[in-house]
Amino acid sequence: MKRKLFAIILSLVAVSFAVAAHAAWPERTVTLIVPYPPGGTADTVARIAAEWLTKALKQSVIVEHRPGAGGAIAAEFVARAPADGYTVILASTGTMEIVPRMQKVRYDTLKSFAPIFIVGTQPMAFAVNSKLPVKSLDELVAYAKARSGQVAYASSGNGSTAHLTMALFLKRAGISMTHVAYKGNAPAMTDLLGGHVPMYLGGVFELLPYYKDKGAKIKVIAVSSEKRLSQMPEVPTVAEQGYPGFSTLAWNALLAPAGTPKEVIATFAEALRPACQDAGFSGKLEAIGVDALCNTPEQFSERLKADWAMWGEAVKVSGVAMQ
Q1: Could you give the CA distance from residue 148 to residue 278 in angstroms, rounded to a whole number?
Q2: Does position 31 have pLDDT exceeding 60, yes or no?
Q3: What is the pTM of this model?
């Protein structure tokens, strides 16, 4: 009886220490892993989030880069890190949802991580060269149907969110177009402006200057978001133009290793939630084409599952093979 009572006491003491440890988190520097080289969108989002979290958590949050393999190297590193909240990843849709469909990785998107929140999202825009005689998706579909497989569209590369968004749209619209994969956004934009490729699906931010310039050589005819964008209020969504429910977004989000205490995840989420209501924070993100979101761990978890199914279908219909 005494042994049993002693064991219960030890158990309660252990739980008390664990709870106290979680309540005190963070007690040292938190490392935010970025899967890409410095200078890109993900790096900038990470630094903006780290700056806010450093103040909110009253502890240093530093950014560390581990690029390579489409983000898989960083994701594998974080998946194997201690589940204590001191190592997290600023991941993208590509790293979590697409790369595991295209190459062998040593992490499971839905099992290896604990979702914290999506910091921000990036919708895509459908743009055509002004010489193409279309002003809407309906007109594009009709034009492409009359020239099955002859009309080309550009993207930043095979398996990119833009390429896969277009693959989903082509299936939904029942048309065939030829994909021209570029090595990045810049060369694709150059050829769109030069009229060498009639259509391009890219980020809203990079297309925004041309949307505002009424004399530009391109027209933006649709956005992939659920609602119209404040940056392009005149441009209807894909859903509005006869494709209800169609929506794709690229996102940047924080995830911790699976098994990270719920109290730590909650502290993380609560620390960032006010940021998206802050004009300075959201303004910094908007300046790089990112819409601040800061949703809850539960909302992010549901999004992660839904996107896993959606992007899986996109990879399948696109014909992109596992490497």
Answers
A1: 48
A2: yes
A3: 0.87
